Amino acid sequence: MEYKEAFKDLYKTAKNKFNIQQAPRLILRQDKENAKKVFGRTAYYDPNESTIVVFITNRHPKDILRSYCHELIH
Question: How many other C-beta atoms can be found within 10 angstroms of the C-beta atom of residue 38?
Fold first, then answer.
């Protein structure tokens, strides 16, 4: 996936807008079983680990980036 610059730009904007002090670790997860589910997970934030996990299997790039943005504001 070639989203590196898009993720950086989104983080920079969110950092300034929401005063994020520390960047969470980003994990892009492939999960074929989750992707088959109508209500499968799209992303989540783990505050204990300061991690954002984004599920990427069979998803459009802008949907992946949208999920990342959503989790950043948690």
Answer: 4
Other CB atoms within 10 A of residue 13 CB: 12
Helix (H, G, I), strand (E, B) or coil at 27: strand
Q: Strand 25-29: give its sheet, edge to edge.
A: 25-29, 51-55, 43-46
What's the longest Cα–Cα distance across the chain? 36
Instruction: Point out which residues pair with 28 in neighbouring strands.
Output: 54
Residue 30: other Cβ atoms inside 10 A: 10
Strand partners, 55: 29
**Residue 73, helix vs strand vs coil:** coil
Tell me if residue 24 falls in helix, strand or coil: coil
Task: Note the pLDDT tens digit of each residue in 31-64.
Answer: 999 999 999 999 999 999 999 999 999 999 999 9
Residue with tokens 């590196």: 4
